[in-house]
Amino acid sequence: MKAFKKLGIAVVGSSMLFGAVAFAGEGYGHGKGMSEEFKAKYDTNKDGKLDDAEKAAFKADRAAQHKQRVAQYDTNKDGNLDDQERANLKAAKLQERFKSLDKNNDGQLSIDEFKAGHEQMRMGRMGKHHR
Q1: What is the distance in angstroms between the CA of the first residue and the CA of the last residue of the chain?
Q2: Under 8 Å between Cβ of 42 and 30
């Protein structure tokens, strides 16, 4: 069981990377793969794709999120994340991802939770590559 938990944590880490890539590219400028939430927020003219103004709004939101995240973990307030601050950010993201996969909140990933997370990650990548 411990080996599975370690494997789950490793997979969570890799899935975070792919999940971030999938979100960053999710429907960005294309109708295919856009989630309903993404469409509702950014596709303001409801044409199924992002025009230049909608892309600019998306980029502005991403920049604001990045700035907020840096500020949250920039403990020495120098405007940059040093090695320790980046490690703290990475650990927090891993914890968030693990919690999102651990549906019954028991601190472990069951095989069903693992499969569901894998499928979610796979669908995110498919949406990105099959636009």
Answers
A1: 39
A2: no
Q: SS3 for 19? A: helix
pLDDT in tens, 103-127: 999 999 999 999 998 888 887 654 5
Tokens matching residue 53: 């103004």
Kindly report the CA angle at 29 between 23 and 34, in degrees rounded to 5?
Answer: 50
Q: Which residues contact 71 (CB under 8 A, 6 or more apart)?
A: none
Decide if 76 contacts 86 (C-beta within 8 A): no
Q: Is 36 exposed, middle or buried (0-12, 13-18, 19+ CB in 10 A)?
A: exposed
If one compares 35 and 80, the residue with the highest pLDDT of the two is: 80
Q: How far apart (Å, rounded) are the C-alpha atoms in residues 63 and 79?
A: 14
What is the model's pLDDT at position 3?
Answer: 47
DSSP H or E segment with residue 107: none
